[in-house]
């Protein structure tokens, strides 16, 4: 009898343990899968590139050497931000940049997450403002958030006070909405003057970022130099086209061109400290 009671106790204990195992919170199981490298949604990492129209994986960018940023000559006793459309580097990387913030495609968020794609977003408040939550999500995935003015007005030729209000105002807005204080600034339409540089410096900007290549509805175009991607090129993926291919497709086109040249994508902020 005692042996039968002992066996019953063992069986009861086993059933209790099995019940506990079955009652594990599904969120906890999801966390365990993530920790083990299992993706709960989307394609596996080794197949993500095919999902986004690439023929081979996107190589991880190298870690750039730390260096101080050279500023432009002093004007009026003040060091002005450097103006760049290309980064001097031997690393085989290009940099993807996006302007305004008018396109808020959740599939682009998936693309950035699944490809671990470094991108830099230059936001204009009057365009991006109604949907800052979208850009907060991208920022959590590692996207750089940078300044593109409050209202996208052409700055060159405007008084200092107006230019400063456009740049500093967006600094304050991005700080309030996303908790970031950008160091990079792109003037609307890529136009600027010395007053723009003075105002940008006074707003905490270290670098004015233009572009050497841009993805347009007709393809990749270049502002100067060779008409092919080179290491260090800053690429503008745009412009926003309501009737053209979606942002993710334009991004794929740039990635294909980069891979044809043996290039990958680097994080711009890592090179413009």
Largest sheet: 7 strands, mixed
Proper CATH architecture of the largest domain: Alpha-Beta Barrel
Low-pLDDT ranges: 1-40
Structural class determined from secondary elements: alpha/beta
Mean pLDDT: 83
Q: Mind telling me the CATH class of the largest domain?
A: Alpha Beta
Number of helices: 10
Q: Please indicate the percent range of residues in DSSP E strands (runs of 2 or more).
A: 15-25%
Could you characterize the architecture of this molecule?
The chain is of the alpha/beta class. Helices cover 38% and strands 15% of the residues. It folds into two domains: 2-35; 48-271, TIM Barrel (Alpha-Beta Barrel). The chain contains ten helices and twelve strands. A hairpin with a 2-residue loop joins strand 1 and strand 2. Helix 7 packs parallel to helix 8. The radius of gyration is 25 Å and the shape is globular. The termini are far apart.
List the helices and strands and how they pair.
Blueprint: H1 2-22, H2 26-35, H3 48-51, E1 74-75, E2 78-79, E3 82-84, E4 93-100, H4 106-115, E5 120-123, H5 125-128, H6 132-140, E6 144-147, H7 160-178, E7 184-185, H8 194-202, E8 207-209, E9 213-216, E10 219-222, E11 234-237, H9 247-260, E12 264-265, H10 268-271
Parallel strand pairs: 3-8, 4-5, 4-11, 4-12, 5-6, 7-8, 9-11
Antiparallel strand pairs: 1-2, 9-10
Helix pairs in contact: 7-8
Q: Key terms for this structure?
A:
273 residues, seven-stranded mixed beta sheet, 10 helices, 12 strands, 15% strand
């Amino acid at each position: 009898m005692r042996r039968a009671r002992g066996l019953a106790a063992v069986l009861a204990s086993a059933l209790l343990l099995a019940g506990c195992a079955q009652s594990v919170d599904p969120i906890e199981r999801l966390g365990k899968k993530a920790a083990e490298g299992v993706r709960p949604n989307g394609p596996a990492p080794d197949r993500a590139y095919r999902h986004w129209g690439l023929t081979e994986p996107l190589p991880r960018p190298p870690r750039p050497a730390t260096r101080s940023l050279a500023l432009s000559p002093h004007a009026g006793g003040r060091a002005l931000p450097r103006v760049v459309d290309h980064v001097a580097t031997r690393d085989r990387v290009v940099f993807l940049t996006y302007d305004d913030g008018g396109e808020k495609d959740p599939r682009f968020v998936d693309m950035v997450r699944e490809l671990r794609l470094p991108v830099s977003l230059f936001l204009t408040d009057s365009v991006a403002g109604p949907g800052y939550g979208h850009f907060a999500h991208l920022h959590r995935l590692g996207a750089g958030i940078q300044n593109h003015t409050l209202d996208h007005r052409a700055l060159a030729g405007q008084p200092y006070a107006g230019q400063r209000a456009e740049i500093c105002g967006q600094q304050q807005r991005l700080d309030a909405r996303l908790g970031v204080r950008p160091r990079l600034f792109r003037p609307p339409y890529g136009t600027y003057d010395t007053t723009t540089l003075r105002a940008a410096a006074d707003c905490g900007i270290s670098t004015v970022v233009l572009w050497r290549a841009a993805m347009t509805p007709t393809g990749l175009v270049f502002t100067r130099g060779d008409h092919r991607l080179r290491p260090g090129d800053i690429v503008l993926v745009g412009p926003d086209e309501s009737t053209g291919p979606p942002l993710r497709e334009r991004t794929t086109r740039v990635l294909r061109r980069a891979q044809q040249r043996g290039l990958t994508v680097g994080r711009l902020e890592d090179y413009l400290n």
